[in-house]
């Protein structure tokens, strides 16, 4: 699938910031090109990035040059005097943006896994240009005419299934990107895409800020009752790293949150953790997401209708296996009744266990995970803390790799002697 199409599909799921259209970056100076690892050919095994040499300041010039280079590549295809063919249009488009893809592969990974304020600032600065580039590709009438001509030729051409699939997918993405709209509607679509991208990034930033801001510090060791030793040690280590001299630190990050609410006997502390998790982006502060979420929903409906769909679900599902909202609803309806019946049976079992503990009242959200763990241990004798030593990481990885080999013939082995962005 064309790189630009892959990026566009990714943008539907994790919107990028958008801004003024048409902004172009001047190529970086020769000295910057020489010093920046992204402007070099990577000769390490499997093209592994030289993480030991990549620094935060390398991303911005590399992203800007990648955008400018892909823009020039695409413009050359659109302005070609040669009649459109599979090779000079569809396959040529598929090969554009190699530098940009190279940089974004590293940048997006670090932004998601090891993000910093600096990386987030770079995302905010470059995303408007990335969004403009995508719109400029899919809304280019001349470029779309060439793609459409190749698709028309395909009806009588001798092509293999992969070539036909590539042509059809590229044409479809142009159409879904607004290529058939009138000039006025194209401008409206640009505006919607820009605002959606800004809101999408802001939503994610707010959620991350709220997650990182929450801290539950426990100073009384008795309140740690029920927690596995490994969870307690991790919380003590987290407290030391956070500069907390006394106590244990618990956060809303998965490795801290879920073991805590599953095992902590202190109901009030479980409540504080679950309420903190549920309240992210819903506290009326600078990171509140309610207005953003409402506006995203409004813009998605406007975009879908502009492109000829009844609603956002219809637009998204038209490119998925389900195809229609009715198909999804029918599937959910078939699952819903048995799922609700099971949930009620579980709730009754959890309530019985809670009453045995002396709990007077209904099961609350902060009780669910705790009593689910209790009932599982009582009924089946399953305790994650006791099972975990029998499944160390190395053994689990070996099992996964063995299954991959048996199913797909893929052999997975560790690459040694290459720099990593994180020791794990």
Entry summary:
The chain is mainly α. Helix content is 65%, strand content 1%.
Helix-strand topology string: HHHHHHHHHEHEHHHHHHHH
Return Rg in Å. Answer: 26 Å
The strands making up the biggest β-sheet line up spatially as 1-2
Main beta sheet strand tally, sense and closure:
2 strands, antiparallel
- Report the principal-axis shape: globular
> How many strand segments?
2
Identify low-pLDDT runs: 1-28
**Which class best fits the helix and strand makeup?**
mainly alpha
Task: Give the mean pLDDT.
Answer: 89
Please state roughly what percent of the residues sit in beta strands, choosing from under 5%, 5-15%, 15-25%, 25-35%, 35-45% or over 45%: under 5%
N→C terminal distance: 31 Å
Q: Count of DSSP helices?
A: 18
**Fraction in helix:** 55-70%
């Amino acid at each position: 699938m064309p790189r630009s199409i892959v990026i566009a599909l990714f943008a539907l799921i994790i919107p990028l910031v958008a801004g003024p259209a048409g902004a172009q970056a001047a190529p970086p100076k020769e000295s910057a090109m020489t010093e920046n690892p992204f402007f070099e050919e990577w000769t390490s095994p499997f093209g592994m990035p030289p993480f030991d040499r990549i620094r935060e300041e390398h991303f911005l010039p590399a992203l800007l040059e990648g955008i400018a280079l892909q823009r020039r590549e695409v413009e050359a295809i659109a302005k070609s005097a040669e009649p459109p063919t599979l090779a000079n249009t569809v396959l040529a488009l598929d090969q554009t943006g190699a530098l940009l893809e190279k940089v974004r592969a590293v940048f997006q990974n670090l932004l998601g896994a090891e993000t910093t304020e600096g990386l987030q600032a770079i995302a905010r600065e470059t995303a408007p240009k990335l969004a403009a580039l995508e719109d400029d590709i899919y809304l280019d009438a001349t470029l779309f005419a060439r793609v459409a001509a190749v698709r028309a030729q395909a009806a009588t051409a001798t092509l293999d299934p992969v070539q036909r699939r590539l042509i059809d997918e590229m044409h479809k993405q142009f159409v879904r990107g607004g290529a058939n709209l009138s000039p006025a509607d194209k401008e409206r679509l640009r505006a919607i895409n820009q605002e959606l991208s800004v809101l999408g990034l802001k939503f994610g930033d707010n959620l991350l800020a709220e997650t990182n801001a929450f801290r539950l510090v426990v100073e009384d060791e008795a309140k740690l009752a029920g927690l596995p030793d490994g969870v307690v040690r991790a919380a003590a280590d987290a407290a030391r790293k956070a500069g907390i001299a006394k106590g244990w630190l618990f956060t809303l990050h998965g490795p801290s949150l879920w073991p805590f609410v599953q095992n902590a006997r202190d109901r009030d502390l479980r409540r504080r953790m679950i309420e903190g998790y549920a309240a992210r982006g819903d506290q009326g502060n600078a990171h509140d997401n309610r207005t953003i979420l409402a506006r995203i929903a409004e813009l998605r409906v406007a975009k879908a209708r502009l492109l000829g769909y009844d609603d956002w679900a219809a637009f998204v599902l038209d490119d998925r296996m389900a195809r229609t909202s009715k198909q999804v609803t029918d599937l959910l309806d078939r699952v819903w009744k048995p799922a609700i019946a099971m949930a009620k049976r579980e709730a009754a079992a959890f309530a019985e266990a809670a009453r045995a503990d002396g709990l007077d009242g209904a099961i609350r959200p902060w009780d669910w995970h705790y009593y689910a763990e209790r009932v599982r241990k009582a009924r089946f004798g399953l305790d994650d803390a006791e099972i975990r030593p029998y499944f160390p990481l190395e053994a689990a990885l070996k099992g996964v790799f063995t299954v991959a080999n048996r199913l797909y013939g893929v052999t997975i082995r560790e690459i040694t002697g290459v720099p990593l962005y994180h020791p794990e």
